[in-house]
Write a structure and sequence with these properties.
It is a single chain. By secondary structure, the chain is of the alpha/beta class. It has two domains: about 60-145, no CATH class; about 180-395, TIM Barrel. It is about 35% helix and about 20% strand. The chain has helices spanning about 1-50, 210-215, 230-235, 235-245, 265-280, 295-300, 315-320, 320-330, 345-360, 370-375, and strands at about 60-65, 70-80, 85-90, 100-105, 115-120, 130-135, 140-145, 195-205, 225, 245-250, 305-310, 310-315, 340, 365, 385. A seven-stranded antiparallel β-sheet has the order 1-2-3-4-5-6-7, with no helix packed on it. Strands 8, 9, 10, 12, 13 and 14 form a six-stranded parallel β-sheet that branches. A two-stranded parallel sheet has the order 11-15.
Length: about 400
């Protein structure tokens, strides 16, 4: 009897141990099985990301932005019927304030590449840029962001920004005509060849005369957008600019952001300065560059003059370095573009002396905004904003 009891107790204990061990063994098996599935999925993802995605052998590479502020980049190469690659590249901006950039090159049946660069602004102070072309050349639109900064300059009155600066609306038009038979050949320019316009803001100053001398030495012209408080201080320089044949523009009395002002204030800023300039030299109606490039519907309704922003920001206001200014212009200059500089700095005067011969060597006809737009047959209208005057076939 005693042996029977011992046997039964031993059997029960063995059964309990077997059940417990089997349950643990099953959990371990399930864990190993899940890990194997995850590892296989990871391997498949890696293979898919690195492998060719089309019959031409092109590849896709993906990196995701992290919390450190680096942009994520997506690059995809897709071949076409002619065997040439089309490329799409995208970088998404991040909380660090860097703009996201998207570039797309899509080849067409003729083998020429159409290019569509897009830079979208972010919550910081960088501007967004949009350029679109159809294979024969790009057309550009720059729109600012909604941040408190204006994208290209943070401290008035030294410099400007384009587009939606502190609530302004970056609207622009290419003009009312795009026919090459409207080209004006009477200005000493060949509208079928590359033209570029130089513009200088916020002067005049003690450096304006040196810039004018550089322009005259190379037999070219430019536009000087003058601000009222400097017009009053440098009246002789205003006369020098006018007598040298340069175009004079209106940059308001006090370099205030017009998009933040009421109608009466806008009117005073623009037309008081126009009257002041005309009291020094007989310009008449004067074209306007809105400070910071900022306009809205109210500004357009009050300023019944053509308004001009720019296509290339030399960033002379930021770098104050001639080498950097020259490099920036060389990088961004294109036919029909307006270059922004400021005749406030010695570095800009030095850069002008260097960049003007370079532009001429590249085949550009360097002139004022007024002459470039007229040569290209662009009819500018009061209250409208313009930024470039590309050849008719690119508009």
């Amino acid at each position: 009897m005693t042996l029977t009891v011992i046997w039964l107790v031993t059997a029960a204990a063995a059964l309990i141990l077997t059940v417990v061990y089997f349950e643990r063994l099953q959990k371990l098996y399930d864990k190993v099985d899940r890990e194997n599935i995850q590892m296989q999925a990871a391997r498949n993802t890696s293979v898919n990301a690195d492998a060719a995605v089309n019959e031409t052998g092109s590849d896709t590479r993906v990196s995701l932005a992290g919390e450190g502020g680096n942009p994520g980049k997506i690059t995809a190469d897709a071949g076409n019927a002619d065997g040439g690659p089309g490329k799409i590249q995208a970088s998404e901006g991040n909380a660090g304030g860097d703009p996201g950039q998207i570039t797309s090159d899509a080849e067409n049946a003729g083998g020429d590449q159409g290019k569509i660069p897009v830079n979208e602004g972010n919550a910081g102070s960088d501007p967004g840029n949009i350029s679109a072309g159809d294979g024969s050349g790009p057309a550009d639109i720059n729109e600012g962001n909604t941040g408190a900064g204006n994208g290209m300059e943070t401290q008035p009155p030294v410099g400007d920004s384009i587009g939606e600066a502190a609530g302004g609306i970056g609207e622009e038009t290419q003009g009312t005509t795009d026919r090459s038979d409207n080209y004006d050949h009477s200005l000493g320019l060949d509208p079928t060849k590359p033209i570029i316009a130089l513009s200088f803001d916020d002067g005049p100053s003690s450096y304006t005369e040196r810039i004018v001398a550089a322009l005259q030495a190379n037999h070219v012209e430019a536009t000087f957008f003058m601000v009222g408080y400097n017009v009053r201080e440098f009246k002789d320089t205003v006369r020098l600019v006018y007598d040298s044949g340069m175009q004079i523009g209106n940059h308001t009395s006090d370099h205030k952001n017009l998009s933040k002002l009421k109608k009466d204030e806008i009117k005073s800023q623009v037309f008081d300065n126009e009257d002041l300039i005309n009291s020094v030299v007989p310009v008449g109606r004067i074209v306007v560059r809105p400070p910071y490039g900022a306009i809205n519907s109210t500004v357009k309704s009050v300023v019944n003059r053509p308004m001009f922003n720019w296509s290339v920001d030399s960033e002379d206001w930021k770098t104050r370095n001639a080498d950097s200014i020259v490099a920036q212009i060389k990088q961004d200059a294109k036919d029909g573009y307006v270059i922004l500089m400021h005749d406030l700095y010695e570095s800009t005067a030095e850069a002008a002396e260097r960049i003007i011969p370079w532009l001429l060597d590249q085949g550009y006809q360097v002139t004022s905004i007024e002459k470039m737009f007229k040569a290209r047959g662009v009819i500018t209208e009061d209250g409208e904003l313009y930024r470039m005057a590309q050849p008719a076939e690119l508009r």
